[in-house]
Amino acid sequence: MGNAQSPPADPLFDTAIRAFTTQELEDLKSIFVSLAAQSGSNGKFVSQSVFQAYFRVPGLLGTKLFQLATRKRNDGMLLFEDLVVTKAIYEKGSRDEIEEFIYQLCDVTGDGILGRSDIEAVINSVNECLFYPKSDGTGLTSHQDVLKVFVNAAQFSEKVEGSSVESMSLADFRSWCSLVPSARKFLGSLLMPPDSGRPGYQVPTLHHSEDIPAEILILRKEYAWHIGGALSQDEVEDWKLLYHSGINGLSFSTFLGNLSNGDGPTVLIIKDNEGFVYGGYASQPWDRQSDFYGDMKCFLYQLYPKASIFRPTGANNNLQWCAVNFSSDSIPNGIGFGGRANHFGLFLSANFDQGHTFPCTTFNSPCLSKTSKIHPEVIECWGVIAKVPQNGKPEALKGTVLERFKEDRNMLKMVGIANSSD
Question: CA-CA distance, 265 to 319, in Å (whole number)?
Fold first, then answer.
């Protein structure tokens, strides 16, 4: 008489499969089978190297994602059940479950303390994925300074017993995700098919005249990625330079003239004489008005020395301001966002030589610069070129999940990982 027994049931897997449709489970199974074959495991498991190469999550972040996906067994083997359970929690769980998973994911050192070095490692993974995957070191110091702005937005308020190190609490983490929504999108999509439509991976293409030196532009692709985190996918395809004060002069009339041919949203960026960089997203054209206008798509942001986004709170409708040639003191001439007349969240006078920034309830934003009174050194404005299909509906991703997966498998073969063991 044999005593053979069936493998013990996995209650988490039994619960997780209910979150997926039959087709979704079939797609996941097909991807798992192919990746397991590439791992040299006779179809039993996916190795860490193949896992990281397929999902394109480099460095410590990829290692930690694999550890969580294997449910911390540390055996180097991702089973099909692991993949289903992880995706059910990470992508289809409650908001609290998803945020708790991402919070654990960011503790890349695995010491139970989400510190500054962990967030730096996360941002370095963003860098490798989106900006400089094969950096030759040119301009590296300047580039690292740009990356620090995302870490500088984080707070670490939790005391660690027996250590001088301070940790990021879950509340701190949620606040950071709100201030840097691109990072939240990126961290929330790491197990999705690695195609161009993966949330958090979109970096706007910046268009400007070839005779404009790139070094005079304030807007870098890292900053554009940050601002784009608060926008829809079709608004982060292409941005076009409409006005630059170093080229067009500090002129309000030129600014309005250069923008008059466009009716889309614009990205306003200011660098002041304190070295601070900040601005606002104008969802409506800059048109002469005698009062506030705009909609709830407007927002303010900081870019340097830290990166933060401040969305409308709903406290009031004082969103966008554009006044030209008014003689009343109660209608200040210039452009602005939030707050109230003469006490804006951000304001540039019609002379474009000064302005101010105050804390405001419209966006729950702080003073965006070192002091409330600002003196611009450079002003840029970029037009957002939204791609809207003729039928008015967003374009669907081309091909099925499996068709896109075949393309990714070919990529793995090209880099020599396909059909190799760990």
Answer: 14
**The token pair that represents 4 in the structure block:** 């053979």
pTM of the model: 0.87
CB 255 within 8 A of CB 277: no
d(CA 112, CA 161): 12
Q: Is residue 129 within 8 Å of 91, Cβ to Cβ?
A: no
Residues 306-322: pLDDT tens digits?
999 999 999 999 999 99
Question: Residue 168 in contact with residue 179, Cβ under 8 Å?
Answer: no
**Taking the alpha carbons of 90, 12, 403, 416 in that order, is the dihedral positive or negative?**
positive
Buried b (16+ CB within 10 A) or exposed e, 117-147: ebbbbbbbbbbbbbbbeeeeeeeeeebeebb
- Tokens representing 224 are 């554009």
Furthest-apart CA atoms within the chain: distance in Å: 101
Report CA Rg, the chain.
24
Query: Which whole-number Å values give the CA distances from 344 to 173, 330, 335, 337, 354, in the listed order?
Result: 29, 13, 10, 6, 13
Write out the two tokens for 256: 């309005």
* Crossing angle (nearest 10°) for helices 170-179 and 95-106: 90
In this structure, what are the phi and psi dihedrals at residue 249, rounded to the nearest 5 degrees? Answer: 85, 155
Q: What angle do CA 382, 377, 144 make, to 5 degrees?
A: 75
The DSSP annotation for 85-136 comes to HHHHHHHHS-HHHHHHHHHHHH-TT-SS---HHHHHHHHHHHIIIII-TT--
Note the pLDDT tens digit of each residue in 347-361: 999 999 999 999 999
